[in-house]
Amino acid sequence: MVNPLRLIGYFLWMGKEIVTGTVDVIVALFTPRGYSSPMIVQLPLRCTTDLEITMFASSITITPGTLVAAIAASDGADDPPTLFVHVLFAGSEDEAMTDLYDMERRLLTAMRGKPPRPALEVFGRDEA
After folding, report:
1. Residue 128 maps to a domain
2. In which family does this protein belong, per the annotation (predicted)?
């Protein structure tokens, strides 16, 4: 069940992420080295409904420095939907995945009223 207060908190947190992402992009424009290491990561989802997937993909895309490049639907019960995310500012794939799973955890906590199972438990990945 959607928790309105947690959803407001999520949108406020997203606002902060948009501002900090914008600052990262601006700083990169004026830095000789520019982007640290752009990459595309494959992100299996804990989101299950179309609304959760759409909100999560939109949250990623609206944040400067990240973009959902593709979505792969699940083929069966054991195969979760997957996003392919282009990330500009991450030191490693694990760092990018940790940040994305943190965003997913925050969204699912707001949408479901309780946090999802940890990504490490579900996919063998760590999260913040």
Report:
1. no
2. Belongs to the CPA3 antiporters (TC 2.A.63) subunit E family.
SS3 track for 22-87: HHHHHHHHCCCCCCCCCEEEEEECCCCCHHHHHHHHHHHHHCCCEEEEEEECCCECCECCEEEEEE
For residue 79, is it within any domain?
yes
Tokens describing residue 70: 């593709």
CATH of the domain at 46: 3.30.70
Whether 110 contacts 2, CB under 8 Å: yes
pLDDT tens digits for 6-17? 899 999 999 999
Question: Are the C-beta atoms of residues 90 and 36 closer than 8 Å to each other?
Answer: yes
**Would the pTM count as exceeding 0.70?**
yes
Half-sphere exposure in the Cβ direction for 44 (13 Å, CA): 15
